[in-house]
Design a protein that fits this description.
The structure is a single chain. This protein has helices at about 1-5, 10-25, 30-35, 40-50, 60-80, 90-100, 110-130, and strands at about 130, 135. It is mostly helical. The protein has one domain (about 35-135). The protein has a two-stranded antiparallel ribbon with strand order 1-2. Strand 1 (about 130) and strand 2 form a beta hairpin. Helix 4 crosses helix 5 (about 60-80), helix 5 (about 60-80) packs antiparallel against helix 6 and helix 6 packs across helix 7.
Length: about 140
């Protein structure tokens, strides 16, 4: 939409109508992701790390968002190789990477909560990511 507007294909009224339609089509999760300034898949990790409600300051919430972003970047660049689920060594490597990155969570996370979140995130990654992509790549 913006590219079309910038290329003078749309007038201001058409652009605003398109923008309103786009906003109305966004789902609740899309709106939450935009409000938090993270992607839908980062939001999924963020939610796993913060629900049920963990008492966080605004600064700690920002730290958790950064951890979610860093985790996905690390896993996608280094760990989620083709058929990673079929080889015990690569599964263990993913699990270790999750623990290493989540070790940067704020002090608000007790050792027990940290372990629980590591398991929940690993399960989410295992169920939703293959070496060829994720459910987020298909727009699901």
């Amino acid at each position: 939409m913006i590219a079309e507007y910038n290329a003078d294909f749309l007038n201001v009224q058409m652009f605003l109508n398109d923008l309103i339609n786009f906003a109305q089509e966004l789902g609740a999760e899309d709106k939450r992701a935009i409000a938090k300034n993270i992607t839908e898949e980062e939001l999924a990790i963020f939610d796993l790390l913060t629900k049920p409600e963990v008492q966080l300051t605004k600064q700690e919430e920002q730290e958790v968002k950064q951890v979610a972003k860093e985790l996905l970047k690390t896993l996608k660049q280094e760990k989620l190789v083709l058929d990673w689920k079929k080889i015990q060594q690569t599964k263990a490597s993913v699990e270790v990477a999750i623990k290493d990155v989540l070790d940067r969570l704020p002090q608000s996370y007790s050792a027990e909560l940290y372990e629980q979140k590591c398991q929940e995130v690993y399960q989410h990654i295992y169920e939703n990511y293959s070496g060829q992509g994720s459910i987020y790549d298909t727009g699901a």
